[in-house]
Amino acid sequence: MTGFYRNGYCDVGPEDSGNHSVAAEVTDEFLAFSASRGNDLRTIGLTGGCKWCLCVTRWKEAFNARSDDRDPVVPRVFLHATHQKALDSVGMDELRKFAADGEASNAASRPVEPSGRPGAAVKEL
User: Terminal CA-to-CA distance of the chain, rounded, Å?
Assistant: First the structure.
């Protein structure tokens, strides 16, 4: 089960110093990238296509290392399940750029803000 608290959600609390707030579908390229940075998620059974709550800083590292906006090193993001704490380290425009299919329809014209409830995902307005 995914999430720092293994509850199936990308909840972030005081115990989660890694800010596992980005709900994403990992790729083989991202898994290799993460392993090269010292965190081999394949050792816990992840493979390309798995959905996982990623540390926002690792997602941002992959975003910064990408060769272009189609680079599979950056996992696609499920905005509806990404915790608002992700916005502490990454911009909404960056998350939208790699939103999973169907997650950011009309993304350029629809602002996103925290939903306002503690532990909530970001939501599109």
Answer: 29
Neighbours of 19 (CB within 10 A): 22
Q: How far is CA 41 from CA 3, 50, 54, 73, in A?
A: 13, 11, 10, 14
Rounded distance between C-alpha atoms, residue 6 and residue 18, angstroms: 14
Give the span between the Cα atoms of 48 and 87, in whole angstroms.
Answer: 25
pTM of the predicted model as reported, rounded to 2 decimal places: 0.81
Kindly give the confidence (pLDDT) of every residue in the chain, 125 residues in length, as a single tens digit, with 9 standing for 90 and above.
577 888 878 989 889 888 999 999 999 999 999 999 999 999 999 999 999 999 999 999 999 999 999 999 999 999 988 999 999 999 999 999 999 988 765 444 333 344 443 444 443 33
CA distance 125 to 10: 21
Letter for the amino acid at 125? Answer: L
Distance CA 85, CA 16 (A): 11
Q: Please report which helix (H) or strand (E) contains residue 93, including its range.
A: helix 92-97
